[in-house]
Amino acid sequence: MNPTSTLGPTSMRAMKPRGSRNIGIAETKARAGSLLEQGAAFTRLEADALQAAGGQAPSDDKTRPALREEHVDVVVIGAGQNGLSVGYHLARRGLKFVILEARERVGDIWRSRWDSLRLFTPARFDGLIGMPFPSDRYSFPSKDDMADYLEAYAIKFSLPVRTGVKVDEVTRSGDRYIVTSGRTRYVASHVVAAASSYQKPKIPDFAALLDPSIRQLPSSAYRNPSQLNPGGVLLVGAGNSGAEIAMDLAPTHQVWLAGRHPGNIPVAYNGYFAMRLVLPVVFRLVFHRLLTVDTPMGRKAKPEQLSHGLPLIRVKPRDLDAAGVRRVSRVAGVQDGKPMLDDSQVLDVANIIWCTGFRAGLDWIRLPIFDETGRVKQYRGAVDGEPGLYVCGLHFQHSTSSTMIHGAARDAGYVADRIGERLRAAAR
Ligand SMILES: Cc1cc2nc3c(=O)[nH]c(=O)nc-3n(C[C@H](O)[C@H](O)[C@H](O)COP(=O)(O)OP(=O)(O)OC[C@H]3O[C@@H](n4cnc5c(N)ncnc54)[C@H](O)[C@@H]3O)c2cc1C
C-alpha cells in the first residue's frame, strides 16, 4: 500500500531507531521538555490548520464532520511500555506509524500512581528492548524513575509519539480502520490498542449503598495517607496493590485487608538468593516461558490469574502481620451503610480503598471483538475476525508476563511481525 499523509509539519519523521547511547534519568528530565513540546506543538499546529481551514480547534463534538484526515500504515494507541515496545519493533521494520497518547507526557500513568510506590521488579527486569534500565540492577526503581525511563526511551528511539491525543473511538470502513480523536481521523490498515489492562477499576455495585461519610477510592486514585479520613481503612482485595497500600497506610491508620490470600513468593524478596536465583526463575522461566496460552500449565493457570491476579510478589503475610494489618475474609455486601464480610462481620471504617482489579476499558473500540465476559477475543494480540487489529498488554494475552515490563518485548515483537507480514503481502 502507498499511504498518503495530509499532515503538514507534524508528519512522521524517520523512524529507524538510532543506535545512540543510553540516556540516564537526569538527562531525560532535561530533555523531556522537547517531547512535551512535540505534543503541544502538534496540538497547536492542528488548531492553526483547522482555523485556517475555517474550522475550530479540536473538540469532542462529534456532531461536526471531521476536518482533518491522516493516512498511515499503523496507529498505535497508548505510549506505555507496550505501545513504546510496539513502536520500537515497527521502527526496526521500517514501517510508517504513529503512537497516540492521551496524557500530556509519556510516563504520566506511572507518575499518577501512589507516592511511595516502588516497582516490585528489580531494575534488571524493568528495561524495555534495546535500553537497559539505568539503575543498579538489583535496586527497585521508584514509579517516577519508571516514568522518566519511558520518556527517555521514546526520545532515544525517536518514536513518533503524539501526546495529549486521546482516541475517542476505533471503527472500520471496508479494510481500513478509522481512529478518531476529537475532529481528527486517522485512517490505517493496522491498529494496535496498547492502552493498558488497568484503565477502569472494577468496583462492586454494592459500593453505592455505603454510607456517604465513608471515603471511597479506587487504588488508582490513592496517592498517600493524607487523602483519607481519620479512622480505619478497609482495603478490599488482597492482591499486590492491596498489600502494598496496606503497608503504606499501616503507620498512620488502623488497616483491614479483605480478601482471599493469593499466595506469595516464599523467599525473602530482596535477599542475595532471591535476587540472583529465585526472581529470574519466577519472572523469566515461570511467568514468561511456562505459563503461556501455548502450554497446558499456562492454560490451567490462566483463569485463576484472570480472576485472582498474581501471587504477592514483595509483601509477605508475615510483613502484614508485623505491621498490624488485620487480614479478614471477603467483603460480601453492605449492612446499615457499613461493609459486611462474608462471615457476617460488619466493619466500622472511615475509608475504603477498592483494590479489586481493573478492566481493560477498550469499549471505545466499536467492533464486535469482545466475548461474553467483556474480554477481547484474541490470540497473542491478533484480534479474532478483525484482520489488522491488534491489542497489546492484556492480562495473560500470551503469558503471565504479558502485563509485566519484561514481557512487553516479546508480545510487541509478535504483533509487529504479523503487521510486517501483512504489509509485505499487500505490497506484492
Ligand atoms: C500499581 C501498579 C504497579 C505495577 N508495578 C509493576 C512492576 O513493578 N513491574 C512490572 O513488571 N509490572 C508492574 N505493573 C504492571 C504493568 O507493568 C503496568 O501496569 C504498566 O503500566 C502497563 O503498561 P501498558 O503499556 O500496558 O499500559 P500503561 O502503562 O497503562 O499505558 C497505556 C497508555 O495508554 C494511554 N491511553 C489509554 N487510553 C487511551 C486512549 N483512548 N487514547 C490514547 N491513549 C490512551 C494511557 O494514557 C497510557 O499512557 C504494575 C501495575 C500497577 C497497576
UniProtKB/TrEMBL annotation:
Residues 1-20 are annotated as: Disordered. Pfam families: Pyr_redox_3 (PF13738). The keyword Phosphoprotein does not apply. Keywords: Oxidoreductase. InterPro entries: Auxin_biosynth/cation_transpt, FAD/NAD-bd_sf. Gene3D superfamilies: FAD/NAD(P)-binding domain. This is NAD(P)/FAD-dependent oxidoreductase. It comes from Mesorhizobium qingshengii. The lineage of its organism: Bacteria, Pseudomonadati, Pseudomonadota, Alphaproteobacteria, Hyphomicrobiales.
